[in-house]
Amino acid sequence: MVGDVAVGGDAPISVQSMTTTKTADVDGTVEQIYSLYAAGADIVRCTCNDFEAAEGLAEIIPRSPVPIVADIHHQYKMALAALEAGVHCLRLNPGNIKNEKHIKLVAKEAKDRKVPIRIGVNGGSLHPDLYKKYSNQVTPEAMVESALMELSYFEEVGFSDVKISVKASSVPLMIEAYRQLSEATDHPLHLGVTEAGPPPAGIIKSSTGIGTLLAEGIGDTIRYSLTADPVQEAKAGRTLLESLGLRERKNVDLIACPSCGRAEVDVFKVADEAQAAFADKKIPLQVAVMGCVVNGPGEARDADIGIAAGKGRGHLFVKGKNVAVVKEDEMVDELVKWATLINEKGVEETFKLKNVDIESAKAAAEADRDELLEEQGENVNEDKVKIANIRKLQSPEPLESPD
Ligand code: SF4
User: Fold this and answer.
1) Is the CB of 291 under 6 A from ligand 1?
2) Residue 384: how many other CB atoms lie within 10 Å
């Protein structure tokens, strides 16, 4: 348990992030913790690099909506001070503390207070002896050996409430290190790609590394390490877990068509506006933005609610059924209004509302669809032309060579 959040076993995978404020700045740190919590973080880590930070933690912890992990580097006294402040977990490597008496002291204090510890091995700061042993290379084997060595320091002093991470900035390296570690130990694993960098590459690297492992059933808690506002880390972590079906959806899952020759609106713009409009709404529905009424409602028929552009107006559909026609410049506002309604009342109750006239909404959508087909033709994307050309190539007749 990290505070009231279970980690490991059958517990839901948890999302972690880290504050970027000075921990001694209590109000600023609490404010950032709340933003991270709102964005989907279950656990937040704060640095505890000096005694001012430890004193800050003592004031932050009672005000925090989520359990707090203290990041400790080399000083055992910082670990003791963080425990005194009431942290719910420590992140440290006992090997960095070096002195056995000090390791024992931290372990005993953590054990008495039932506070777990994360051992955080990092590809970039592997112990020089191990680095040498593996021919001056950071390998998955070296990282796992380092983690097991760190673990043994705690085992020697009878402390076992431990989770482990073996992060690296190389995605293939971290994937392999975690795979090997999961074979070597039953301790819960904290996943991450370290120094992943700024988005979008940082998000892609982290999602690939963390997502691959989670899909293999490896990992218990995750952190995106982005060079960006940590709110983005928490959001990305949460979205990954929701998209893998590992956590219940908390926010809108926005789907949108890629746009094509049929689009009647600027789909990118409408989708961006919808994304911004739903950003802070806790509406766990799938919402679709589709560029045309010719194919949109059919292609997104599984969405809870969607909008498709028609002739200067938008057609709202719920679970594939047309429910209303709205002005083009009010498409996003109406989408939010209807999504809120469905979230509160449910689909069936929404269908029963007085202003929902499924028949006339359907007729209006069909009228626009017919008009667009008339205008654009059946084949606006020219796929039929392309298919006909491909078929010509299948003819047994030899092709004429160009002069
Ligand atoms: S056919 Fe319509 S819904 Fe499908 S991609 Fe094109 S514009 Fe979007």
Assistant:
1) yes
2) 11
Is it true that domain 253-383 has CATH number 3.30.413.10?
yes
User: Which pLDDT score, from 0 to 100, does residue 298 have?
Assistant: 86
Q: Which two tokens stand for residue 182?
A: 């999961």
Classified as helix, coil or strand, 257 is coil
Q: Going by CA atoms, what residue is nearest to atom 2 of ligand 1?
A: 292
Enter the DSSP assignment of 18.
E
> Could you identify the atom of ligand 1 that is nearest to the CA of residue 261?
6
Do the Cβ atoms of 194 and 168 come closer than 8 Å?
Answer: yes
Q: Is 187 in the pocket of ligand 1 (CB under 6 A)?
A: no
The pLDDT score that the predictor gives to residue 163 is 97
Q: What is the mean pLDDT of each run of 10 residues along the chain (403 residues)?
A: 96 97 95 92 96 95 94 92 96 84 90 94 84 91 93 90 96 97 97 96 98 98 96 95 92 90 90 94 92 89 92 92 93 95 91 85 92 82 79 81 72
Q: List strand residue ranges (DSSP E) for 230-290, in order.
A: 253-256, 286-290
pLDDT recorded at residue 403: 67
Q: Indicate which residue's Cα is closest to atom 6 of ligand 1.
A: 260
Beta-carbon contacts of 328 under 8 Å, excluding residues fewer than 6 positions away, are: 265, 309, 312, 313, 314
Please give the number of the atom of ligand 1 that sits closest to the Cα of 258.
Answer: 5
Q: Under CATH, which number does the domain 14-243 receive?
A: 3.20.20.20
What was the pLDDT predicted at 140? Answer: 95
Atom of ligand 1 nearest to the CA of 262: 7
- Ligand 1 in reach of 306 Cβ (< 6 A): no
d(C-alpha 59, C-alpha 222), whole Å: 26
Between CA 93 and CA 107 the distance in angstroms is 12
Q: Give me the residue spans of the domains in the chain.
A: 14-243, 253-383
